[in-house]
Amino acid sequence: MDFSIPAELQAYLEELDTFIETEIKPLEAADDNIRFFDHRREHSRTDWDNQGLPREEWEALLREATRRADAAGHWRFSAPEKYGGRGGSNLWMAVIREHFAAKGLGLHNDLQNEHSIVGNFPFVEMFEQFGISDAQKAEFILGGFEGTRRTAFGLTEPEHGSDATHMKTRAVPETRDGVPGWRIDGEKMWTTGMHAATHCATFCRTSGADGEAKGISCLLVPNPSPGLKIEEYLWTFNMPTDHPRVSFTGVWVPDSARLGPEGGGLSIAQSFVHQNRIRQAASSLGAAVYCIEESVRYARTRKPFGEALAKNQAIQFPLVELATQAEMLRLLIRKTAWDMDQIPHREIEHRLSDKVSMCNYWANRLVCKAADRAMQVHGGIGYSRHKPFEHIYRHHRRYRITEGAEEIQMRKVAAYLFGYLGPRRETLGRL
Prior knowledge:
This protein is an alpha+beta fold and 431 residues long. It has helices at residues 7-29, 41-45, 56-71, 90-101, 122-130, 134-146, 265-301, 313-341, 348-351, 353-378, 380-383, 389-397, 399-402, 406-417, 425-428, and strands at residues 46-47, 53-54, 109-110, 115-116, 151-154, 170-176, 179-188, 199-205, 216-222, 228-233, 244-254, 258-259. A hairpin with a 5-residue loop joins strand 1 and strand 2.
């Protein structure tokens, strides 16, 4: 077994670091763009008088960073080569995401809006695996990279969050002008990115009874569409917001707008979350490492009562525990990402879902603990917005809910552990 980072990956990390220093940092420093990252960040990013949405100047800066990264061949790294990427593996993406987040806040990687100079594209694999035609795949994958298509994810509902099987949104067959299609009625919540989305991947029950996993379909609803209404944007712990509540009243789409098989929508959702969760876990780990390292440096230089803070066990021991957990978590994340690369994408749900959940829920807990400890070690200045810890805490706290609540992820782990799902079903299931 070899736990070292491959030479090719280390070389690519160095290439990315050089790109950040020569292209991204100067852009971050130009025209007072640093206001989006220093103590003014929340106000500078948020258009408070426009429903709390991201300011146009902020999103324009992100687009320019993305444009430069794409021109340099980095942004599409994880995408297949036929779409202009490098076919980057889950393992390499996990290492890169940790590496970026460990650098702290910056234009190179800002997770509040899923921005990074090395993009994360779970939608690519989702369309690649479940697109019903080559034309649909090309439209949404290439269109996504070209900026002509942007797909929001409509799964969660106001009355049904973690339990998607009881969703109330319904789609019934309806033919219009001789074209077979679906009429959609219902409501979605936390439909991130709808202010800029061209389509909403809307999950609806098309058959079966409430509570059944089968019978849920995914329909690609154009935005805008007659009957689709963005009701409100929900203000959150970390602003700006792009998380609306959306209603569907008699919205019609042709059957060609369906993604994947009729009634097989939950597998599509799982396809999306597994890639997203392992990479987001790596980002949370990196942010935790940043908080730990900044606390160590501060404790070595801060000298109350004539002695460095670092000499106190009350300072040392909590950071020791966090550093130990970070080391163990890193091995689990990289092992799980490597395992994901060894099997077909659709098999991940059946063979590795528990390990992905372990990585994700524990990483999200760890970063919140590390950010809180960093605030405590830094004292008053740590609590202020002149340090990034409050931002890291407020941002990553959401992932204990939004990547699938940690309780749901623990339930998934338990199902695998006790043999109700996964490989152990054949052995423990007989007991």
